Amino acid sequence: MITHRTYILASSSSSRYNILKSAGLKFKKTKPLCNEEEIKNKISKKNKPSFVAKKLSFEKAKSVSETKKYNNDYVIGCDTLIYLNKTIFNKAKSIKEARTKIKKLSGKKHKIISGVTICRKGKKVWQCSSTTDVVIRKINEHQINKYLKQTGPQVLNSVGCYQIESLGPIIIEDIKGDFFNVMGLPLFKLLKYVSKNK
Predict the structure, then answer these.
(1) 133 in catalytic set
(2) 73, 79, 133, 178: the active-site residue
(3) What are the pLDDT digits (tens) for 114-133?
(4) Does residue 17 contact residue 29 with C-beta atoms inside 8 Å?
C-alpha cells in the first residue's frame, strides 16, 4: 500500500508483523513500553471487553509515540482478548494453563475482541475495535494433548491457544467476522483508515 506516512507497530507479536507486511504497509516494529498486565488488572473487572482492548491498544501506542525516537511518527497499538461467559481470558503462561483454557473453550463460542489505536506525539488520532465469533470443536482430553504436542510452546503466543494461520484449524469449528482479527489485528478497518490518510 502506497502511503507517505511512516508507521510504527508497537507490538512484539510476529502475527501482527506478518499481517502488516503481507498487506504492503510501510512500517517499523518496536516493543510497547507500558505494563500491559498492570493496566489490564486495573480496568478489566469494571469495564466492557471492547473498552479494555481499546484502552490497552491506546496505552501501547501512546508509550511509544511519546519517545523522542518516534515522536513524529504514527504509532499503531493493538490488543486482542478473548471473552467467554463474562470473563476476559489472559494468555496462558504454561502448557498446563493452555490445556485448562482449551478445555473451557471446547464446544463453545467465544469472542475475539481487538482494539487498535494510532497515536502521534502521545495523542490519539484514530481508534477502533473489532469482534469476531469463534467456535472451538468439542474435543476430549486425548485430542487436546495431541494438539498441544503438535503445537509445542508456540501455543502460548496466542491468547486463545490457537493460531488460525498455523495449526488452529485443527480445533476451530467456525468463525464469523474478520479473519485477520483472529490473528490479532483487524486489518480491514486499519487499511481503510490508512488509505484515507496517506
Answers:
(1) no
(2) 79
(3) 999 999 999 999 999 999 99
(4) yes
